[in-house]
Structure formats: C-alpha cells, structure tokens
Amino acid sequence: MAFVKDMLRMWAHSWKRFISIAMITLLGVAVLTGIYAGCRDAFRSTDRFFDAQGLHDVQVLSTAGLSNGDIAALRKVNGVAKVQAERSQEVTFDLDGRKSATMQEIVTNGIDQPYLQEGRMPKKAGEIAVTRKFIRDSGKHIGSRLTVTPESASSDTSDTSDTNGADGTNETNGTDEAPSFPTKLTIVGVVLDPQNLSNPDGYSAMTSFRSTATTDYTFFAPSDGVTGTLCTSATLLVKGAAAESTFDESYENTVKQVTDRIDGTVKTDRQKARRQELLDAGNRKIADARAEADKKFADAQSQIDANRQQFNQQVDQIVSMQAGAAAAGAAANGANAGAAAAAGATTPQLDETTRETMRETIIAASPELTQAKQQLDQAQSQLNEQKASTEQTLKTKENELKTSIPQVRWYVQDRQSLGGFSALKSDLDSIQSLGNAFPIVFLLVAVMMSLTAMARMVEEDRSLIGTYVGLGYGRLAVASRYLLFALLACLIGGGLGLIAGFLGIPAFLLVVLQGMYVMPGLRLEYDWLYGSLGIALFVVGVLAATIYACVQEMRMTPAALMRPKAPRAGSRILLERIRPVWNRIGFLGKVTARNIFRFKSRLIMTVGGVAGCTALIVCGLAINDTVADLGIKQYRDIYQYDLMVVSDDSDASAMRTKVASDGRVMSSLDVRIESGDLTVAGSGDGDSGKAGSSGSESIQLVAVPEKHLSDLGEMVTLQPVSSGMLGTSGVGKTGSLKLDDDGVIVAQSAASALGVKAGSKVRLTNGDGVQATAKVSAVNRNLIGSDVYVSETYYAKLFDSKDAKNTKNSKSSEDSEALTWNAMLAKLSGSDTSQTDYAESLEEDSSVMKAVSCAHMADSFKFDLMGAVVALIVALAGGLALVVLFTLANTNVSERVREMATLKVLGFFDREVHHYVNREMMILTVMGVILGLPLGRFVGGMLTMALNMPSLYFEVEVKPLSYVIAAVATMAFALLVQLFVNPVLDRIDPISSLKSVE
After folding, report:
1. Which residue from 30, 116, 697, 710 has the fewest beta carbons nearer than 10 Å?
2. What is the pLDDT of residues 491-504, one digit of tens each?
C-alpha cells in the first residue's frame, strides 16, 4: 500500500510530464485519425448516396447508338445485375446568350436516379426537373416555363438525302429512330444529379476551360412524351459492386472483371452486328429507292406508250382516208362500173413501206402532228436518260455504302470517367495522403519527447529505485511505476485525441467539403479498429521509450543506484580549440557553449524536436504557397494570351467577326479546341475505348494552323520539362520548345500523372471519339489543365488515317476539308477589370459558346479544401512545437536544479538566472529552426509531388515570408514557454536544493 501511495505521490509531483506526454499523444492521435476520419466519412456517405440512387457502375456508349440487340447482349454478360437503356437529346435555349442542355430520360429501372431536393419529380410530358445550378444561373423557379430547340444534326446523326438513306444510318437501322423530347417545358422539381455532386451554391475549384462538347445543364424528363427507340447509352449495375466501397480497389476489381468481359466478348460482336444492321438498312433503302424508281419509270413509260399509240392511230386514220380517196379517184376515171363499185366498197391494201412513207409525209405536212411527235420522242428520251442516271446513281451508292458507313465503336466507361466522381475521389485521396504522412512526424517527435521526459523522471528517482530494489521489490514492479504513468498519459491523451480526431477535425473538414460538394446523408462515424490502433501506435512508441529509460538505469546494482550519479567527465568542445573565437567569448558565454555541446542527448533531442516542428510548419506553408501560386503562374506566366473564345463550328466565322469588330484585340491566333482523352499506349488495348482507367487523362486538344505554328510561342510559354530525382522536374529555357509535325506537346500536368515523357507513345482521342497513336515530342511546363498541342498537319495525319475515315464525320482524302478553327487566343488592350468585363459581354453573344479571361482566372483561382487542411496542419504543428518546447524546457530545469541553486547562492538575481537558462534554450531553438527550414522545404516538396490530382501539377513554391513565419512562430513559442519556465526557476529554494542526496 505504501508503494502505491508513493507511486501516486510521484505521479502527482510529475504532473507537467504527464500533461506533456498526454498532449503530444493527443495531437498525434488527432492528426492520425482526424484527416482519415473526415475523408472516410465523406467516402462512406457518398458511397451510400451512390448506392441509393443507383449510380451506374459501367456505361456503354456507341458511335451509332444502341439497339435492342445491343441491350439484350449486355444483359447476357456474366456479372451484370441490371441494364438500363437510356435516351437523351441535346437542346439549346436562350439564357443571356445561347446555352445548351442535355434532356435526360428518367427511367424507372433504378439506375442513375436523380435525388429530389425541392418540388416533385416530373410525371407528364413537358414536365422537367432541373439542377440547382440552373436555378441559380437562370433565376427561374418551380413553375417556370422554358422553350428549347433540339440541336441540328451533328456528327452523330448526319443528314440523309432523298436518294440515299445510307448516309444517315448512324441514327436508324430502318426501324430505330433517334430520341426526341418535348420542347415546351415546365419546371416542377429541383434535383441533384448523382453523376455530378459539385455544389453550385458553394465553391468549386476553378480549372481552365477544357471542353467544347459538354452541355451547360442537364434536364430530367419522364418517359411520357419521349419518342424514338434508339438508345444513346446503356448503364449497368454489376453484381456484388454495391457491397464494396466505390472508392476501394476491391470495387474497381469487381467492375473491371465485367468491363473486361464486355470488351472481350460482346463488344466486338455487337460492333460488327450493329454495322451490319446499318449496311442492311442502307441496302434496303437503296432497294426501296430502286423499286420506287422502277415503278415511276414504268408508269411514265406506260403513259408515253399510250400517248404514242393514240398518236399512231390518228396518223393511221389519215393515211387510210388518203389511201381510200386515191383509190376512189382512180375508179372514177375507168370505164368499168363494177370495178369502180368494188374499189369504192373496200379500202385499198398498202404495203408497210408505202404506209410508213405516207405517215412521214402526213406528219411532215402537219405542224401539229410534227410537234406532237417531237414531244413524244423528247419524253421518251428524257425517260431513258433518267432511268440510266438513276441506275448509275444507285449502283454508285451500292459501291460506296461500305465506305460511307463508319466502323461502329463502343466505349466502355466506369465511374472514373464521371468528372464529378473523379474530382471528389481525387480531392479526398490527396487530402488523405497528407493525413497519412504527417502523423509519422508526430509519432517520431512523441517518442523523442517521451524518451527525454521519462529518462529524466527515472534518473530523478534513481536513489528511490535503488532503495526499492534493495528492499526486495522486483525490477518489473519498480518499472511499472513509470510504465503505468506513461500508459495512463497515453490513454488519456489518446482518448481526447480520438474525440478531436473523430468529431472535431472531421466536422471542420466536412464543412469545407460541403462547400464544394453536395453529400446528402453525411454523418460522423467512429472507427473502433482504426481508433484503437491509433492509440496503440503511440502507446507502443511511448512505452518503448519508457522501457528503454528504465532498463538503462535499472541494470545497475541497488548500491550504485542509491549513490548520487557521478558528474559527467569534463571535456573540451570544438569551439575551445578555435582560440581567436573562444578568447573573445565572455565567461557566461563559455558556460553556455559548454552546456549546449557537452550534453549531446539534450542537444539532439531539443534540436531534433524543434526542427521537426519547424519542418511541419514550413511543410504546411509550402503546400499553401504552392497552391496559392498555381493560378498566377498558369494564367499570367504560362498563358500569355488574355482571352480565349470558343464557338460552335457553325458559328466560328461569326465569332471571329464579332471579336474583330470590337477593336479590343492587339494580336490573335485561331486554333481548334476539342475535348478528348490521353491514354498511355502501354496501359491497355488502345482500341478498347475504355475511358477513365488509371492510365487515362481528360485533355484539351489544341490544333494549331500550319502557317502559324511559330505564333503559338507568343500565346503560350513553351518551356520543356524533364523528370529529375525523387519525382522532381527540371525546366528548360523559355522559347526553346517548338511545335512541329513530328509529334504532340503534352502538358506537364497530364504527363506527370501518367508518367509520360518526350519520346513516349500515347493514345489520343479527339472530339469525335476517333483514336490514334501519337508520339510525344516534348512535355511543356503547365500547372492547371491538360493541354495537348498538335499541328494541323499532324492532326490530319493522326485522325484522317484509314481508321479515321471509317469513323463518324470523317471524309475521304479527296473530299477532306480544312479544320474549322472554332477558337481564338487573343491579347487584349486595357486593364484586367476591362478584360474580365469584355469576356463576360462576349458570352452574351449568340455566336460565342465560352469566353475565358485569364486575368479573371488568375485572380479567382482557389483551392479552399487544401487551404483548410493546410491551416489545420499548421495549427497542429504549432501546438506540437509549443508542447515540445515546454517539455524540453521543464526537463532542462529539472536536470539542473542544483546548478540553478548554486547560481542563486553565488548572488545571481532572478532575471540573471532566467537569462542564463533561457539563452541556452533560445540558442538550441535557433539551431533547430535553422535545421528545420530546409528540412521543411524538402518534406513539403515530397508531399506536394505526392498530390496527384486531375489536371493539376504542384510546382513546389515556398515564399521567403513562409520561412520567416515558420521561424518567428517557433521562436514565439519558445518565448511563450519562457513565461511558464521562469516562475519555476523563481521557486527553486537554494537551501533545500543543495542538500546532500545521501
């Protein structure tokens, strides 16, 4: 009992050490669990929402639409739980300029169901549900009416001529028709699209303009009123996928098995079958056209034959009358009356030659008959020409049918191809990677501080330990006093850390996340396993340090332990050997120098602890500086143009005329911009069409006119980059990179994510879905967006190949037309504000699809989620620095109580004692700061390079002010600790402190 009471008394006396260990454990456990828990809660709530709304696991698209046969084939694939055929149509409407939307059918099969936020779901024809983004942008509300116009035939649904239906068979196989939706619409509900969780009322991370094909909004309509049997896509649910977390690798593997089966079996067969359906439909149309033409020609021929027969009858009557009159005259001049009577009684018989001669004579003598005969002959000639021409045309169409119908291509996509899904996953993964890295530093610092604190605590009790051992107490029983002390401090600190880690930090992160994404049903959850392991990790580290401290002391005999510890043998320090310096240092300065460098363990612990804390602060500020400078570097340094204007192909000329007439442009470059994909050629079957895999990146394909290749360098800073050590990159000389016809220039942001470098082979997909293998001639410095620059000639070489000619909207070499330059890069006159206003005014013009001001993008680019996490990390690192300095300062004082008492006996005033002790701590703190600043830059660089986010490359940047802030903050913490240490120094009693230990 006395042993226990003494133990409790000892614990109470060491309350400062207890608080220090508990606080370090609290901070470490909070960092370890907090960021993880926040990301996990977001992952789980999103996964539940996706399962509830039936977000598709796989989506299948086809360049020729999907028929009932395609849907039936997908249902037979092993592992497919449900298939939903979807119909959609792109429409346009007027909303401060021309806007586009996708009319999406709400199918009641349970896949991709919109989440109702306000109002009700549409049920009747003409009713629609819209997203909150549309409500915010349009100012409309439930009950508002809207009129839309279906977009004109695009590359997917080319027009069909009257004489040839084969050219338009992309949209029909004879019975299937493209979907058509009502155009007079009424808003009855506001919904959340499960494919895009971006919060329109909050903040969405801004990126460069990347797509000219995506629509501005999505309208959801019921099946009532939708016509057309051809499906625009098919969505699938995979068996067992709902049981897995959509963000885990197990889910990806489950889905990949089904996509591989589709790629390996169904895809090839259905592509061929679908194209054969189109060929059969074309042949049927040609056959129908021939039959219809033959019928018309036969009717026309019958009419001509009837008219000619009537004409011949009239001529024959005249011939007969003339022949009879001639015979009667001959009989009247004869003497035989009987002969005359016989001649008058019968028509004379004429041979065919005589009759034909008489016909020609009669026709020639009569203008009316001559004209009638000419008309009949002309009609016959025209009919014969039409028959020959039609037959030739139909034969030509039959010969051209196979080449005019493109090869049907399927594109099998998983959830990674959804922009909203991949953005959320990337954001959370990147933040979670930070949460996995920082606790390591906290753990190392916790072990170091625990070793320092517990070693001093054991050393203070060495006489008592010797007494207990001498009285027969086991070494384990004696060590348990300190092990239980450390364990209790870890458990209490860890418990408080779990509260902060699973409640406080996640609540903070989720507030920021909900400003970027809408996540219905979000709730905080506790992970018993992870939380327990988090505490156990720090318990093991701290107890290991405590056991080491106990072993170091208890290996001595009880008699040795009960005697005072012999003073450390004196030795010279290196500075003493530098006489010119040493001789000029005062007495107290020499004492300070000896104290600092002779006690190497204290030196290492203090400098290491302060360096670690300073490095954490610098690391957090480095990430913040890197993210803060992204917009400025991209939109003011890399992009030299001030304005990018994009239009539809049909409005390209009007757009350029509009911009030129405004008189704001100083110089410009016409380009073609398309939304596409870049896939590493070795990552899989390039012809598979599978998007969104780990080896794929969405890109902005920029084609440059051949005559203006040199002008690209005036609009965009072309600066080659190369890979360096540890993931770093080297930047070449500005202007040393040129675009040519031998390859494409890939943005650094895309190249870094896919491991692409100069000389690599990649698979490019253009805006029409055509794929081609391209050579990477260089990697260009680029931080935001994934631009790929290609020359006009190389573009034609890539996408006008034999493969491209068989794809939709491609032309044969003899009919190939120049690219439509649907975009313009321009340098403007005027201030940043006027440039921003001008870009906004351009968007109101009907010929402009999108106008982007680089000045506006540079000023408005933010990354709130990363900024919030950085602020959290810096705050926790500051707290850790404060605890570390407090622990070291108190340990330093407890080790030197007799020394401080001696100084007081010698006549040192309290302020002089303060200065004597604090000067050593300040020097050690400065040394730790000096070491921690470059260490923080290195660690920050490693962490920022580990942040792999779509269309973003983090070029590490640490501003001088950040170094100053980190150094000043650490020194401020050191000064703050002095306020707690000085009263301890004042309370030292010289008499009691100098009493003999024996």
Report:
1. 710
2. 999 999 899 889 88
